[in-house]
Design a protein that fits this description.
The chain is an alpha+beta fold. It has a domain at 31-98: SUI1-like domain (Translation Initiation Factor Eif1, 2-Layer Sandwich), CATH 3.30.780.10. It is 42% helix and 22% strand. The protein contains three helices and four strands; from the N terminus they run αββαββα. The chain has a four-stranded antiparallel sheet, covered by helices on one side. A hairpin with a 4-residue loop joins β1 (32-38) and β2 (43-49). It is elongated, with a radius of gyration of 19 Å.
């Protein structure tokens, strides 16, 4: 069968144009990373505030990458990320690797 009325569209150009805007937003963003004792028996957590990534699925994918890098558990509470344990230095290292500069 021939392609008589078939037109193919190349969407790769549009995808590459959106990435630099995201990276510029990451450079401007100001993050707070702190250590807190919370819950039963005063367990330590690392709290990351001010991380505005986007929709819920993007946040969950980002959290999954961060948990694998840090080797710990974690969760999303509102717009904040909570990691189990004292992971301040590892989370800063991961965020710098991802392109965040204002920590």
């Amino acid at each position: 069968m021939g392609k008589k009325n078939w037109i193919e569209f190349d969407n790769h150009e549009n995808i590459f144009q959106e990435k630099p805007k995201e990276e510029n937003f990451k450079k401007i963003l100001k993050l707070n990373i702190s250590k807190q004792k919370k819950g039963k028996k005063g367990k330590t957590i690392t709290l990351i505030k001010g991380l505005r990534i986007g929709n819920e699925t993007e946040v969950k994918e980002f959290l999954k990458k961060m948990k694998v890098f840090c080797g710990t558990g974690g969760t999303v509470v509102g717009e904040d990320i909570q990691l189990q344990g004292d992971m301040v230095s590892k989370s800063i290292e991961f965020l710098r690797k991802e392109g965040f500069q204002n920590l």
